[in-house]
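Supplementary material to the annual report.
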Amino acid sequence: MKKILCLAMCLMSALYASSGFVFAAQAEENRYALDFKGGGMVEQTERNVYYSERTINQYENPYEAPTYGSTRSNACAVDVGGNALVYYDIKYDDLVPDYKHKYFLGGFHYGPQNEGVDNMFSALYDLMGTDSRGTSVQGFKDGLQQYTKSKGYTMQITPATGNFHNINMDFLKAQLEQEKMAAIFLDGFSITSFGGIKDKDGYDAITHYIYDGLHVMLVYGYLEVFYYDASQNLVQKDTYLYASTGYISVSLAWVNIDRYCTVDDIYILEVV
Amino acid sequence: MSKDSEIRKAIEKEFKPKKSFDEFCGEHNLVFKEEQPKRKTFSFEWIKAILASAVCVAAIVLMLIPFANSIPVVPPIKYYGEDEVNVVNVSYIKLMEDGILPQSFEDIELYNRIVQIQAQEDNDLILGYLLENVVLYNEDVPVVFELDMVVRSYKGYLFAQIDSFDNLKLAYKEMYEYDISNEMKKKEAYIKFAKNDFEYFITLKEYKSLTEINKDNVELFLEHLI
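Predicted assembly:
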C-alpha cells in the first residue's frame, strides 16, 4: 500500500513539475531578435549542385523591397514593418508622412531615408512593444495594425503557413505575384547574395551565410530552381525567397527554404 | 725536442766519461739557456676571459629585460562580421567634407541609405560606411548605373559580400580591379580600389536596363564617374 502511495505521489510531483515548465516556457514568448537566443553568424558554406539541365521559376516584385533600417539594436521586426509601410506608401502616399519616392528617367526609385522614415520607425518601435530583447509576433502584428489605423488605413495580416517547411507555398506565391509583401519569422536561416549562385560548367556553386537565432525578414518574391539529370529526372529542387534581409551589404538577397532554415511563422501583409 | 737539448746530448755522448758536460762548457766558454717549460694549451687566463664574457652578456640581457615590455607588439587584428556591428545614418555631405567620397558623388539625389558602420562592442571604432542603391550619372557621360558601395576604414570589417571581391580578374589603370559576373539574377560588376586610408568595394548594377554592364561601359564608369 505504501509503495502504491509513494508511486502516486512521485507521478503527481512529476506532472506538477512538467506543467510548471510548460507554463514557464509559455510565459517567455519568443521575441524576434538575433540576441534573444544569443544568435549570430555560424559559418559560410558552399555547396555544388550538378545537373544536365536546369530550369527556373521565379517572381520578383518590380519595386523590389525597401531596405531602410531603424538603427536601433534588435529591431528587425520594426525594420520589416517599416519597410512594408514604405512599400505600400507607393499606393497610399500619406502612410509615411514627409517621405517621397523618386522617379528618374521613367523609373521608380525609393527615396533617401529621411526624418519622415525615422519618425515612422520610432512610432512602430513603441507600438510593437519592442525592447532590447526584440519583438514578439503578436507585438509585431498589433503595432503594425495600430500604426496603419492611425493613418486611416487597415493592415490585413493573413497567415501563409502550410506544409512546405511550414509555408503554404502555393498561397504565398499567388500573394507575392499580386505585389503583396510577406513577413517571415525565422529561427535559424541562411542568406545567399545575388552573386552567390555561381553558374559553373555543369554545376551551380552556391554560397550560404548561415545564422542561428530569431530574425524577421520582408519577402517580396520567390525563386525555384529545378535541376535535372541526363535522363530528365528531377534530381533536386531549391526554393528561395527574395527578401529584404535587414543585413547591411546584403540588404536584398535570397533566403533558402529547403536547408539551414526553420520557419516559425509567415504572414502576408497588405494595406487596404 | 729543441736544438739546445740535441747539442747537449751530443756533447755528453762525445766526451763521456772523460769530461762532464759542465766542465766541457766551462773550458770552451759555452753558455746554454735553460729551456722554458712547455705552455699548457688551456690556461687559466682563457677560463677567466670566457667567464668574464659570459657575465657581461648576462648583465646586458638582465638590463634589457625591463625594456622588453615596452617594445611594441602588434596585436592580432580583431574581425567584425555583420552581426557584430551597429549603424548610424550619416549624410553624404559629411562624407564629402571628410574626403571619403569621390567628387562625382557630390549632389547625388538618388540613393536609399548612407550609414556609418561601427563595432557593436565599441561605438568609437568606425569600421566603414555603406552607400546603398546610389544612381550615379553625369549628363556628359553616356552611362547610368546603380551601385552599392562599402568604404572600409578598418581592415577587420568583414562585410557579408566581401568574398565577391576576391580574385578579380580585370584591371583598369593599375588602380582598379574589377570583374563582371553573370549569375542567376543578372549582370553585376564588382570593383575594388584603394585610396588614401580607405578601401572601396563597389557592386555595380544595371539601372532600369539603361546601360549594359560590359567591359567598355564599366571602364567608362571608372574613367568618368569614380
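Chain B touches chain A at residues 81-89, 109-115, 117, 120, 130, 132-133, 135, 144, 148, 150, 159-161, 163-164, 181-186, 188, 190, 203, 207-208, 210 (CB under 8 Å).
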